[in-house]
Amino acid sequence: MTTLIVMRPLFHPSIEEVTVEGILHALSDPARVAMFADIVAQACPQSCSNFLTVSDKAIPKSTLSQHFKILREAGLIRSERHGVEMNNISRCTELEQRFPGLIRAIVTAHAIQSADEARAKMAAARRPAKRLTAK
Amino acid sequence: MTTLIVMRPLFHPSIEEVTVEGILHALSDPARVAMFADIVAQACPQSCSNFLTVSDKAIPKSTLSQHFKILREAGLIRSERHGVEMNNISRCTELEQRFPGLIRAIVTAHAIQSADEARAKMAAARRPAKRLTAK
Predict the structure, then answer these.
(1) pLDDT at residue B117 is higher than 70
(2) Which residues of B touch A102 (CB under 8 A)?
(3) Buried/exposed code over A91-109 (b: 16+ C-beta within 10 A; e: otherwise)
(4) What pLDDT score was predicted for residue B135?
(5) Which of A27, B71, B75, B123 lies 20 to 30 Å from B106, alpha-carbon distance?
(6) Best residue of A18, A23, A28 to probe chain B, by most B CBs closer than 10 Å
(7) B78: part of which helix (H) or strand (E)?
């Protein structure tokens, strides 16, 4: 017996259908903005399984695929199935033509915030723990 | 008898507490991004009652004050009570120092989208209505 598995086609909006509100909503989640910044930073397509930890936090596979769906349907990434893997690339070039400077500004702001958080974490780690001494 | 009305102080986060995700979430709503773009465009503080219509849509007062609360608590605007009125100004200068280019890019993208929508609406209005004629 041959089992035929029909995969639903992935929805990608045309660049004219992409909205500012859709982009901002998709990137208003800390995990999604970190995933997208990673995809933008890499020249080669990123496989979904590369994101099982984002910003040092483990993310369940089902949550991850929901995040990719939201990024894809907002017009931020293009996904392609390769066997059981899904590869994702950013749609930066098209987005830059539609909304010049928007993606770069968001990714830069995210990088500034991540650097601030890392600095604060290091400073907290260097601070000596309070001693509980009786006077 | 004198009635004393105590107003709760308005919460404004410090600029260090402002997050990219908070800004993007606040501006991912079509009414809020339009309201914020209007505040940014005006040099003088904007009273809440100036926004009873946003993008030609009537907005109830209670919804409006909820929108202002979200913009304020995301660090995008500063609100001041003047009697029964509330005046709002953008925190663009501080935001520009924390996340350079972010606010400008979002407001510009919103303007591009609004112009596209207006053009599409005008083109639709110019198109002759289909005639229902029997052949």
Answers:
(1) yes
(2) 105-106, 108-109
(3) bbeebeebbebbbbbbbbb
(4) 47
(5) B123
(6) A28
(7) strand B77-82
C-alpha A52/C-alpha A62 separation (Å) is 10
- Report A:9-68 residues touching B (Cβ under 8 A): 16, 19-25, 27-30, 33
A134 pLDDT higher than 60: no
**Higher confidence at residue B17 or residue B83?**
B17
| Residue ranges with strand state E in A37-124 | 46-47, 53-54, 57-58, 77-82, 85-90
Report, as an integer, the average pLDDT of A7-35: 93
User: For the complex shown, is ipTM > 0.85?
Assistant: no
Nearest to A28 among B25, B99, B113 (CB): B25
The residue count of chain B comes to 135
Do B38 and B51 meet the contact criterion of CB atoms below 8 Å apart?
Answer: yes
**A25·B21 Cβ contact <8 A:** no
**Bridge partner residues of A79 (DSSP):** A88
Confidence label for A49 from pLDDT (cuts 50, 70 and 90): low
Q: Work out the widest C-alpha separation in chain B, in whole angstroms.
A: 81
Q: Are A48 and A68 in contact (CB under 8 A)?
A: yes
Higher pLDDT, A112 or B8: A112
